[in-house]
Specification:
binds S-adenosylmethionine; six-stranded mixed β-sheet; alpha/beta; elongated; 2 domains; 8 helices; Rossmann fold; single chain
C-alpha cells in the first residue's frame, strides 16, 4: 500500500449494519483496484470492518489477515449473513482468542471485538487460506477462487471440444487460467487477454500461465475493459452467481461483452450449465450459434459474429 492507512473495509457491508470508518481503504479481492489486505503492515490498524466472505477457509484467512493488521486493542467489526457464514463467525473469532460481542440484525450476525495482544492460530489460518500449488490440478490456486481445488465439469467439457484457435483472443472470467493454458497451447494464437474480477484469480493465473503472449486484467466485465476489441476469438465459462444469488444477467452481460469484443466472423466458445438461458442472448448478437457439446448437465456453444 502506498500511504499508511489506519482503517480498512473488506467488501460492501450494508450501511445500516456497520459504520465504515472515514478514509478506510477497501481491501476486497473482488473490487478491482482495491489494496491488498496481505500488504497491510502487522499491528498497524485502528479499525477494520469486514463483510466476511462465505467460504470457511477463505473467511478464516480474511479474519486472520485483519487480526494481524490490527494493532493490539484495535477494533474489528466482522459481519456476514447468517446462512453465509454468519452463524459461525463468533465461534471462529473466539478460536482466534478474541472476546466477542455478537448481535443478530437483519439476517446477519455482527461481531465486535478489540484485538487481543496475541491472537491465537493466525499462522495456521493464513497458511490454510493462502496460495499453494495443488497436484490434482497441477496449478497454483487459492481458496475462494472459483473451483479452486477441482476442475469444473463445464470447463472440462469445453476443453474436450475446443478446436485449435488462432490470432488474438480473450478469456473472460479466466479464474485460475485453465482455459487460457489450453488456448495458448495453440501456436497460432498471437495474444490472449485474461480478465477476472477476482484479484486472487488474476494472481494465480499469472503464475499458471507463464507465456509472453498472455496479458492480464483485474477488471469487472460489467463495465468496459481496455483492449477488448477486434478479437478473433473469446473463450469463457461465464459466472452465474453474484454475492451468492443466481444472477442470469451476469452471464448474459458476458455474452454481450464478448460480442462487442469480437471482429465480424470471430468466434465465441462458451460453456454453461444446461439450465441457463443463454440461447436468446447468443442468437440476438451472433450470426450463427452451434451447440458443440451437451453432457452431464453442461452445454458448449460456438457462436460466430
Ligand atoms: C465459472 S468461473 C470460470 C473460471 C475459469 N474460466 C474456469 O473455466 O475454470 C467464472 C469466473 O468469472 C469471474 N467473474 C465473476 N464476475 C465477474 C465480473 N463481473 N467481471 C469479471 N470476471 C468476473 C469469477 O471470478 C470466476 O473466476
Amino acid at each position: 500500500m502506498s500511504d499508511p492507512v489506519s482503517a480498512i473495509v473488506y467488501g460492501l457491508p450494508p450501511a445500516e449494519l456497520a459504520d465504515i470508518p472515514e478514509g478506510a481503504a477497501q481491501v476486497s479481492p473482488l473490487i478491482p483496484g482495491s489494496a491488498r489486505l496481505e500488504d497491510v503492515p502487522p499491528d498497524s490498524l485502528a479499525e477494520a470492518v469486514l463483510l466476511a466472505p462465505p467460504g470457511t477457509i477463505e473467511r478464516r484467512y480474511a479474519l486472520a489477515l485483519a487480526l494481524r493488521a490490527l494493532r493490539p486493542g484495535g477494533r474489528l467489526v466482522a459481519l456476514a449473513p447468517k446462512d453465509r457464514g454468519g452463524s459461525r463467525l463468533g465461534k471462529e473469532l473466539a478460536g482466534f482468542g478474541c472476546v466477542v460481542a455478537e448481535e443478530a440484525r437483519r439476517h446477519h450476525r455482527i461481531c465486535v471485538l478489540d484485538r487481543p495482544k496475541a491472537p491465537a492460530g493466525l499462522a495456521t489460518a493464513l497458511e490454510e487460506g493462502g496460495p499453494r500449488h495443488i497436484d490434482n490440478l497441477a496449478l497454483c490456486t487459492q481458496p475462494g477462487v472459483f473451483s479452486w481445488d477441482r476442475l469444473d465439469p463445464g470447463s472440462a467439457l469445453l476443453l474436450s471440444v475446443l478446436p485449435r484457435l488462432a490470432g488474438r483472443g480473450a478469456d473472460l472470467g479466466c479464474g485460475l487460467g485453465l482455459l487460457a493454458r489450453a488456448v495458448l497451447a495453440c501456436e497460432a494464437v498471437a495474444d490472449l487477454l485474461l480478465v477476472d474480477i477476482d484479484r486472487r484469480a488474476v494472481e494465480m493465473a499469472r503464475r499458471n500461465v507463464a507465456d509472453p503472449r498472455a496479458r492480464f486484467a483485474w477488471a469487472d466485465l460489467r463495465g468496459p475493459v481496455a483492449d477488448l476489441a477486434r478479437l478473433d476469438f473469446v473463450v469463457m465459462n461465464p459466472p452465474f452467481h453474484d454475492g451468492g444469488a443466481e444472477d442470469r444477467a451476469l452471464g448474459q452481460g458476458f455474452i454481450a461483452r464478448a460480442a462487442e469484443a469480437l471482429r465480424p466472423g470471430g468466434a465465441l466458445w462458451l460453456t454453461a450449465n444446461a439450465h441457463l438461458p443463454y440461447e436468446r442472448a447468443l442468437a440476438e448478437r451472433f450470426g450463427s450459434v452451434t451447440l458443440r457439446a451437451s453432457e452431464g448437465g453442461y452445454k458448449v456453444y460456438e457462436a460466430r459474429r
